[in-house]
Amino acid sequence: MKKIVVMLAVTAFGMNASAQESKPAEPQKAAPVQSDRQASYDAAMMKGGKVWLMKGDKSTLCEKESKIGSSIVHSDGLVVLNDGSKSNLKEGDKVSADGSIVRAATGKADIHPDKQPADKQ
Question: In this structure, is residue 30 part of a structural domain?
Fold first, then answer.
């Protein structure tokens, strides 16, 4: 009788221990974080030596690279156009929704800042 009780106790203990085995936890997938580069802004502007991103009537300080239209705007004012050409924004310059640069001095779109427009060659 003693052997049966011991066997039952060992069996119950073994079943209890195996029921508490933990399975390896599956890694949790992090929720995607929307970076400035993925966010869509209407325009960017150099004001007070800083780049400001605009969406509607709200402005946000640019802290990392952001996509405006087909261009990428960096927080230091560097703009990389879709053809790979680069330009630096100066005070009052804007990057419009299509990604072109509008110079404050002329008020005209300067889509490829490293190339002369056809009418000035």
Answer: no
